[in-house]
Amino acid sequence: MIENNPAMMPTLGPILESQIRNSLPLMVPAIKKMKAKAKASEEAAAELFADDPDFNPNEDPVKQILEMIFAGYQPPAPVPTEDPVDVVA
User: Fold this and answer.
1) pLDDT tens across 41-61, in order?
2) Residue 42 counted as domain residue
3) Has residue 12 been placed in a domain?
4) 5, 28, 45, 71: which could form a disulfide with 61 (CB 3.0–4.6 Å)?
5) DSSP 3-state assignment of 84?
6) Buried b (16+ CB within 10 A) or exposed e, 29-67
7) What range defines the domain where residue 42 resides?
8) What is the rounded CA–CA span in Å between residue 51 and residue 82?
């Protein structure tokens, strides 16, 4: 709601802050798990691309892997369609 109408921030901001403050103890394990997964992914990408001179650590490694997988891929040409036959004639 705030994204769509930033003018609502003075009204909704305190409510949002209160909800986050109340939920914070419950959020800690999930946030820690998310951070650990992100760190493991970063470490895996660093290991995977350690000897790759083209690896850019500032780019998303997943996108770079997809680029490697699909390098040179050309989608098949569209199949020509025939004009529909008018059967009501």
Assistant:
1) 889 988 888 888 878 878 888
2) yes
3) no
4) 45
5) coil
6) eeeeeeeeeeeeeeeebeeebeeeeeeeeeeebeebeee
7) 34-67
8) 51
Domain-embedded: residue 22 = no
Calculated CA dihedral for residues 54, 60, 63, 68, nearest 10 degrees: 20
User: Backbone phi, then psi, for 30, in 5-degree steps?
Assistant: -65, -40
Q: In this structure, what token pair is assigned to residue 83? A: 């004009």
- Do the domain assignments include residue 18? no
DSSP state of 60: -
Q: For 8-54, what is each residue's pLDDT tens digit?
A: 999 999 999 999 999 999 999 999 999 999 999 889 988 888 888 87
Place of tokens 């036959």: 85
Domain total in the chain: 1
Q: Please tell me whether the overall predicted TM-score, pTM, comes out greater than 0.70 for this model.
A: no
Alpha-carbon distance 14 to 10, whole Å? 7
The token duo for 18 is 């209160």
